[in-house]
Amino acid sequence: MNEFIPPAKPLIGDEERAAVDRVLRSGMLAQGPEVAAFEQEFAEHFDLGRACVAVNSGTSGLHLGLLSSGVGPGDEVIVPSFTFAATANSVALTGATPVFADIDPDDFCLSPAAVEASITERTVGIMPVHLYGHPAKMEALGRLAEAHGLRIFEDAAQAHGASLHGRPVGSFGQFAMFSLYPTKNMTSGEGGMVSVADSETERRMRLYRNQGMERQYHNELVGFNVRMTDIHAAIGREQLRKVDGWTAQRQKNASFLTTNLEGVTPPSVADGAVHVYHQYTVRVPHDRDGLAAALREEYNIGSGMFYPVPNHRLEPFRASVDLPETERAARECLSLPVHPALSEADLERIVSAVNSLARAGA
């Protein structure tokens, strides 16, 4: 049988290994100069025009960003249900309530019309997710936020380098979180990076991540220990030097798939949007699960179902809301390999397998 094609593949090279060795030799392992350098380099690389704060995970980044923005009990934040649970979890962890709104079918991101219909007197913010690496409709959402006195909180976990009409994702909201988990477009091994709109939010982020203190033993608030280590930051700094090339390869791979696939609906890209293809997600109108199983069993090709159980149906939330586009996406979406480690032969094999199975009605 052909070698397995994984749905995702972290790329770690000799440069990352050397960077880790450098930190280990230095003896400075916890949050230190590597973290500070990574924060500055990340902001500059993605042209965010604002400060960044590194933490130990993307979920921590969302949680601390919300806390630093003053979100808490009695508040509501509008979120998509078609996303990873960390989006809603981070809101709930502050004591606030995640309110689930539907997505648009073209980009799988929050529908501005659905958001507007979900606004109440308790709403304080909107948290769009730039799902799969495609930017959400930030201009329409921004107008809604301005009209209703709300703030935007960006979940940019999957969208390193994405942009809309020349403006980078991560520069629209009060804060924006980028995940650095191993399967993301770049990684630090584990971690998160949060861009912040103002100095007060930045200061509170830095307090919350470090037990609530700026000076040792002078705690100003009840905080957490969610610091990034210098080991992880050193990996992330090396990945920054490679991510643009990887993104270009993802886009090239996606173009090949879109041009050649049959029997499935490829992802669309909005006018003015730069899609960075964390996932290449197609719609399979009939028997998505059967196609995924056949790809694995007959062709040794991996794929991903993100997200078959929407957040509003998860046990902690159980919301009685009508989200037809969310439910349809949960039934139909399948993510095919698009990562930069794919060879031309891999891509041809993926296309041949999907097209053969689609013709056979799998």
For the record, give the distance between the C-alpha atoms at the N and C termini, rounded to a whole number.
Answer: 20 Å
CATH architecture of the largest domain, by name, is: 3-Layer(aba) Sandwich
What overall form do the CA principal axes indicate? Answer: globular
Strand content is: 5-15%
Mean pLDDT: 97
Low-confidence stretches: none
What fold name stands as the CATH topology of the largest domain? Answer: Aspartate Aminotransferase, domain 2
CATH superfamily of the largest domain: Type I PLP-dependent aspartate aminotransferase-like (Major domain)
Structural class: alpha/beta
Percent of residues in helices:
25-40%
Number of helices: 12
Order of strands, main sheet, comes to 1-9-8-5-4-2-3
Q: How many DSSP-defined strands?
A: 12
Q: What is the class of the largest domain in the CATH system?
A: Alpha Beta
- Total of domains: 2
Largest sheet: 7 strands, mixed
Name the helix and strand elements from N-terminus to C-terminus, one letter apiece. HHEHEHEHEHEEEEEHHHEEHHEH
Task: Characterise the protein shown here.
With 362 residues, the protein is of the alpha/beta class. The chain has two domains: 227 residues, Aspartate Aminotransferase, domain 2 (3-Layer(aba) Sandwich), CATH 3.40.640; 117 residues, Aspartate Aminotransferase, domain 1, CATH 3.90.1150.10. The protein contains twelve helices and twelve strands. It has a seven-stranded mixed β-sheet with strand order 1-9-8-5-4-2-3, with helices on both faces. A three-stranded antiparallel β-sheet has the order 7-6-10, with no helix packed on it. Helix 1 packs antiparallel against helix 8. The chain is globular. The model has no long low-confidence stretch (mean pLDDT 97).
